[in-house]
Each structure stands twice: as structure tokens, then as C-alpha cells.
Amino acid sequence: MAKKTLFVTGTDTEVGKTMVSAAILEAAKAAGKRTLGMKPIASGCESTPEGLRNGDALILQREATETLAYDLVNPIALAPAIAPHVAAAQAGRSISAGRLVGFCRGMQMRPADLLLIEGAGGWRVPLNERETYSAVPRELGVPVVLVVALRLGCINQALLTAEAIRNDGLVLAGWVANHAEPVAMSCEQETLDYLMEHIRAPCLGVIPWIEGAEPATLSGYLGVDALFEN
To answer: Is 4 a catalytic residue?
Structure first.
């Protein structure tokens, strides 16, 4: 059974959740941990001879120390690169939090030191007309890692997301500041200082913009010891 499960969310879509998740897996591997990674639902998948495949899920599959079939890493794969509930509707499928929780609990039964679950979009991205993705980590009762893209508006997004995570009864295990764009935001240091002062969780690292960087490189900017203290 997985000793530790983490759920990775972001302040928005395209904030670097996958690269941060892969970097955490790489850092854990470097510390001698056995790891599993999964992205229960992924839209924007490409058709291949093996079926629909998502680039982010393939990264998690590759970076985990334990070998898993793709369908376990990404059990719900959708082709349209749009919000999951819309993509599912267009594909004639339905998504429920309970189903996703079932996939995650099945993965939790596998032996590992860390199971990392990457969400989709932000904390309140819809799964259907009644449920948002936040219902999955809430039902699992697992700690959350928040990825904050350093760009205009990120303070508001980060504080609101951290507040929502706490209000849902979950522990914010840490957050990562990520340069998701090549051009640095204006007053970046002041923004970082404010976030570090007001997000009530440890900053696990500040990841620079490095075109084409591998997770092993990015992991050097993270300190993940806090994630394994409890």
C-alpha cells in the first residue's frame, strides 16, 4: 500500500502542474523512494495505435519508479483539449468524483512510498453539473500541493485556492512557484515575498523558466523533505 499520497493542483490551467509533479517524483526517486504517478482524467489526448494518449500522463508514467500500464496512469482519456466535463459530454461519457476516487484508491493499494495524483485545471474545475475535481482529494482525505504560476493575478488566485483547500478540510502540504512563461512578471520578488508571507504552507521551491528542461533538472530547485515528514 502507498505510504503517502499527494494531490497536485494549480491556480489555473497551464501553470506547470505536470512538470512540477514530475520534478517531485524525480526528487523522491533521488531520495530512494518508490513512486507512482497518475492523472485520473486527461483531455487533449492524441490518437495512437495503442489508443488515446496524453502527453502529461506519459511524463508521469515515465518518471515514476514503478512500472504501470498506461490505462492505470490515465484511466479516463479524452480527445478534445477542453474542460473535462465538456470533453466527456462530447465523447458521450460521464464523469463522477466517485469513479475517479475508485481509480485512485485502487492505485493506493499498490506498494510504494509515494503516490502522486495530478488533477486537471484548477481546484474547482467541473467534473459534471454537480461536482468539481476538488471532491476527489476531499473524499480521499489527502494532502495537497499547489502550483502557482508567477504571472499577473497570481496572488489572488493562489490565496483563494489555498483558502478553498483549507475550507474543504484538507492540508496544504506545500506550494511551488513556477515560471510558466519565459518573460518574468513585473515586481516578481515582491509577489514572491507576499505569497511566502501569506500562504500558510511551506514553499517547496521556485522553478525558473528553462526551455525543454527535464524533470531531473527541475527537481534540483525543489525541497521535498517537508512532504515526507508526516
So the answer is: no
